[in-house]
Amino acid sequence: MTSPDKKTLPRKDLPVDARIETLAVREGLPATQWGENSEALFLTSSFNHPDAATAAARFANEEEAFVYSRFTNPTTMMFERRLAALEGTEAAIATASGMSAILLLLMGLLKSGDHVVCSQSVFGSTISLLQNQFGKFGVQATFVSQTDVQQWRDAMQPNTKLLFAETPSNPLTEVCDIRALADIAHAAGALLAVDNCFCTPALQQPVKLGADLIVHSGTKYLDGQGRVLAGAVCGPDAIINGPLMNTLRGAGMSLSPFNAWVVLKGLETLSIRMAAQSANALKLAQWLEQQPGVDKVYYPGLPSHPQHALAMAQQNGSGGAVVSFTTKSATGPVTVTGPAGLDEASLRLRQSAFHAIDQTRLCSITSNLGDTKTLITHPASTSHGRLSEAQRLAAGITQGMIRVAVGLEHIDDLTADLARGLDTLNV
């Protein structure tokens, strides 16, 4: 299926050198005959045709036009065009969620017998999708250290088709060397896909560092207010409007026009939100490093972060808006329970983390991220709860880890909120 994007549908007359902040509010489709200033929302499942012959031509891909909203809709296209412009790619394809974007990527590019090299630090559902779902269809996956380039190189096989990384990772904020991984992939005739959810194109454009495909959960920072689910894959037109569009048309992991419109409008404030939330996150990370109840802080903007220099080079000098930290182990009686197999040391860490989270009054206890509200979660029992303890530990996720997706509240209010728990830890 060819997207109706290339020939007949008009584009906005924007300067070729327009910057990302301008593209974020201007790119899309021209206004309708009514001259609306805000982008129109096309809530329709299908589109009319002037006659049967035209309908036949459009369904046969002989004439480009909007046909059916499962794979062509004006509002959805406006979101796709705008995101592709921000990422610096030729095209983008929207999906119903971030995980459906990864599903589309894998379904569109892989077949039985193919091999994927993936960071062991990616989102838990991504690991599960590769191991449990694609594994049963004959796709092999090898999981390696996010930051050890040699492990990626050693994991390559003759049938390796795709390298997949999430940088910074969730929740440790580990940063991989995108350019180095791109070189490894391309030397073997494979592709590199990068999940850019944490940074967004406001802070990082992986395609400029050699990545082929960019994956997004639009649910997070692209929307920015936790309102809808959305996802997208950005990349070359030949892939996006070739195998991925063919797969989406048949499999139907489509983004609804309403959700596309919400995220489209969210993109307009993306740069200023990311700047403000990242500034808050840096201050919070610096404060956390000084707290007696905190064992370790994970934030790329801190000099103490192992990949600090790489992050500053790849991420436009910003550490992003997500901070993770581990609490010190609780002393005294153990009052929490956990999944089978957790030893006492792990339960004590879990108890400290739960106490610190439960004492907050401003932070929202939820596993989402990217909201203007600050969100706090315990990754080991939420976003990565379906992994085994061995898998979590291999990814560096202990029972004492807390992830904070920093919002737009005043930083003094956020530190006071976290201090309620950290100052009363029994460690």
Strand-helix topology:
Layout: H1 20-26, H2 52-59, H3 74-87, E1 91-95, H4 98-109, E2 115-119, H5 124-134, E3 140-144, H6 149-155, E4 160-166, H7 178-187, E5 191-195, H8 200-203, E6 213-217, E7 231-235, H9 237-251, H10 257-267, H11 270-288, E8 294-298, H12 308-314, E9 322-327, H13 344-358, E10 364-365, E11 375-377, H14 389-394, E12 401-405, H15 411-422
Helix pairs in contact: 1-3, 3-10, 4-5, 4-9, 13-15
What value does the Rg take, in angstroms? Answer: 22 Å
Order of helices and strands: HHHEHEHEHEHEHEEHHHEHEHEEHEH
Largest sheet: 7 strands, mixed
Parts with pLDDT < 50 across at least 5 consecutive residues: 1-7
Going by CATH, the architecture of the largest domain would be 3-Layer(aba) Sandwich
Strand neighbour order, sheet with most strands: 1-7-6-5-4-2-3
Q: Please, could you describe this protein's structure?
A:
The protein has two domains: 20-267, Aspartate Aminotransferase, domain 2 (3-Layer(aba) Sandwich); 271-422, Alpha-Beta Complex (Aspartate Aminotransferase, domain 1). Strand 5 (191-195), helix 8 and strand 6 form a beta-alpha-beta unit. The longest helix is centred in the middle third of the chain and has 19 residues, at 270-288. Helix 4 runs parallel beside helix 5 (124-134). The protein contains 15 helices and twelve strands. The N and C termini lie far apart (60 Å). It has 427 residues and is α/β, with parallel strands linked by helices. It has a seven-stranded mixed β-sheet with strand order 1-7-6-5-4-2-3, with helices on both faces. The protein is globular.
